[in-house]
Amino acid sequence: MVMSTSVVQRALRRDVARFVSARRYHTEPRPLKSPEDWSDFQLERASYKMLIDHFSAFGSTQTRENTFQPHHSLHRPPPPSQLSLSALLASGAHFGHSKSIMNPNFMPYAYGVRAGITVIDLDQTLPLLRRAAQLVRSIAAKDGIIVFVGTRPDLRPIVRKAAERVGSQGYHIGEKWLPGTLTNKLEMFGPDVVKNGRVVPDLVVFLNPIANIHAIRECAIEHIPTIGIVDSNVDPRVVMYPIPANDESTRTAELVSGVLSVAGREGVAIREREKAVQDKLRVRRIAKSYRLPQH
Amino acid sequence: MNVLGVGRSSFRTAVAALRNTQTSRALATTARPYVPPASLEHVAPPRPRRSRIKTKPESSAFFTGRAGYYDSIDSLESAIHHSQRALKNLHLLPLPAFAKEALPPLQTVWKTKEDMSELLSAKLTTSRYRRVTGLLGQLNDHRRVADVGGYAELSSGLSSVLETFERDNKDAVLARGIRKPVKFDEYGRSYTVGKRKESAARVWIIPVKQRAAPAPTETQAASPDFGTVDPISIDSDPTAAVSMTEVLVNGMPLAKCFPLPADRERIIRPFRLTGLLGAYNVFAIVRGGGTTGQSGAVAHGIAKGLAAHVPDIELILKRSKLIRRDPRMVERKKTGLAKARKRYAWVKR
Predict the structure, then answer these.
(1) In the beta sheet, which residues pair with residue A95?
(2) Tens of pLDDT along B225-254?
(3) CATH code at position B183
(4) CB-closest option in A38, A169, A175 to B148
(5) What's the rounded Cα separation, in Å, for the pair B195 and B325?
(6) Residue B341 falls within a domain, yes or no?
(7) Are residues B286 and B265 in the same domain?
(8) What pTM was estimated for this model as a whole?
(9) Are residues B198 and B104 in the same domain?
(10) A223 φ/ψ sector (left φ>0, alpha ψ -120 to 50, else beta)
(11) Chain B residue closest to A164 (CA)?
């Protein structure tokens, strides 16, 4: 039974009045057999929701639209120009690992120790993150391939979204980096693909570098620049552009990958604009060469 | 240039001599330091490159090495997410427990692991196959909810996605194990076949023709509808005759064919359990085996026939294992043993 919107609205208005008078707050468990039973079940729920929505207008001015929602950190990242220290702090990027396992090479990026935990200096993280964003932007502007690597279950949707944001130049690895992806590409992808396609990325971003140390080594062998979130137990020199931050926090990973992918998107837009300008100039030149002589 | 070339090669040989166990790959960063191509632009003229434009990979999961598999996982998950959001807006999800039980079953048969691997163009291990079928199951649940809610468009959209993952002979597979419906002839007789051990019985069951029923009195309780039988209350009419079930096996009456009471009880058991004794007559032709096998075969045929006449009875017969063909057969004799299980006498020496 398909319901049109007006029928639903009329039914809902009638049901709200009935609902309020009957004081039915929850759908009572009863067997659902016929399509009418199912549509009654739907209407009951819809009327309850309508009641809430109706009275919400008289309550707080904060609505779903103008408040923070947990999915905003993934779907609405700040652009690099609007990145602030408080955003990094809010995502928990300053929490390092235990003091006892701090890598001595990480010392320049450590602010101090509190409660046995290394606190990361976000005053250094912020410009390093913006530097990494600038790198992503310029590589994307030169038609570079950018690969986002996050091999944890909670990082999977993050890298996927980041690759989507960059567009046709963005790629993601959410589960496992197969050893030999770069060093054994002929056998992995086949000679045709290697000959006719681009199988070497121009930039790789690691959201959890400790788990992907083999991938980092392959990138070093193939001379591919790397960006990575380095925590206090990691030597920052493993990647070319380290971003000292908490690698265990999902929100931090969302923020970092969001900032970098927005920068990538900007780079792609720059490239599109330049290409449009070049095309226009080319068309003008061709038109000039075909201009008929004036009599 | 020549000097540089000579110097470079001598340096390489020196390094190679020092570490002759390592491969040239390991010396990539020490033997020949990396110089970015941009820095060589003004040093050496760029080699004339063949104009081959290399294309970027299509799939965004190309560098995983299993693009087909991960792409399909991503698209299935996004389909699940979108359909869940749509059903949530329609107030059909989340479903409470009582509503979940009321959902009509929409059983599907997914493709085999090999067929699925071919479809996704990626070799699937068992864990990956299970993951894919898990996601397909979730999508199928959403389809069921959309179906029962009456949203044909959403349901058909989900069906079109799921059909590619279903087996071609899905209907044949689902129909397996379902008994063919028993046909009745023009006299209302059912024909069924029963088997036990080496015996096979062909059984015809016909309802007993009722005599003219007496006028119903107030004392008679309301009776449930069991075929054409009107239960006669003995207390109300003690003179009324009780109808009898007549069983003919190979043309002989039951008592003559099966002298042992155990065999006769076995044949009558379906009637006793269902309370239909006196409602139906039975004619059976049985061949093969001995008394136990033949009586068991007739009982099996009777059970199937009664279930055809009175479908409500099927659950009782199923629970009492009468409708199931007893799979026990004579076990074969094995070499080195006297019989199927009997061993020869053990001798110490």
Answers:
(1) A119
(2) 555 555 655 566 666 678 889 999 999 999
(3) 3.30.230.10
(4) A38
(5) 6
(6) no
(7) yes
(8) 0.73
(9) no
(10) left
(11) B60
Structure-block tokens of residue B86: 């749509």
Domain range for B247 is 179-210+242-328
B186 and B145 within one domain:
no
In a domain, B1, yes or no: no
Interchain pair A35, B55: CB under 8 A: no
pLDDT tens digit string along B277-328?
A: 999 999 999 999 999 999 999 999 999 999 999 999 999 999 999 999 999 9
**B151 and B185 co-located in one domain:** no
Statement to judge: residues B183 and B136 lie in one domain:
no
pLDDT, tens only, A124-170? 999 999 999 999 999 999 999 999 999 999 999 999 999 999 999 99
Answer with the one of B174, B190, B218 that is the final residue of a domain: B174
CA distances from B8 to A222, B17, B24, B30, B37 (A): 21, 14, 15, 12, 18
Q: Are B184 and B323 within one domain?
A: yes
* Contact state of B60 with A181 under an 8 Å Cβ cutoff: no
Q: Which residue of B has its CA nearest to A172?
A: B61
Task: Please tell me the distance from the alpha carbon of residue A254 to that of residue B26, in angstroms, as a whole number.
Answer: 36
CB contact under 8 A, A171 and B60: yes
* Interface membership of B35 toward A (CB under 8 Å): no
Distance set, CA B31 to CA A41, A182, A289, B113 (Å): 75, 21, 52, 49
Same domain, B149 and B189: no
Query: Does residue B348 fall inside a structural domain?
Result: no
Is residue A84 within 8 A of residue A236, CB to CB? The reply is no
Sort A282 into a burial class: Cβ within 10 Å, 0-12 / 13-18 / 19+.
Answer: exposed
Of residues B34, B63, B74, nearest to A173 (C-beta): B63
B191 and B160 inside one domain: no
ipTM for the whole complex: 0.83
Domain count, chain B: 2
